[in-house]
Amino acid sequence: MTEIPSLYEWAGGSEAFERLTEAFYTQVLKDDLIGPLFRGMDPGHPKYVAMWLAEVFGGPETYTRERGGYPHMVGRHLGKAITEPQRRRWVNLLLDAADEVGLPDDPEFRAAFVSYIEWGTRLAHANSQPGATPPMQAPVPRWGWGVAPPYRPE
Length: 154
Prior knowledge:
Elements: H1 7-11, H2 13-28, H3 35-38, H4 45-56, H5 62-67, H6 69-77, H7 84-100, H8 107-127
Helix pairs in contact: 2-4, 2-7, 7-8
């Protein structure tokens, strides 16, 4: 029996996620609805998001080692007051970028990919609201083929 590839491997590895986030943030900065959230972003932001996505989908733990993992990611969203229309636009532009850069479009991959993107953006939306107090310590989620990891507070 052969080993089932991770979503990271199936997508094409780190290079695929870097292509994705470069194409995505090019569109984000032009967008009237979510562009203002990212004006003045660190020039490395697309690469950092690519590192996050790569780790989530089964790649190396580069985001955790170099950026601080989950605590850093959740901290980046605190107080941003992301609206539901902004969250949806983020999702739609990311899916458009996935098509643009040729991420796999088979139903199994896209179902798992979209599942994480929906789940993650809904958490980011909730965590960004005024007064939100999300847990500040948790592992980076690891997403697989049709399996969402349960959150288990420590």
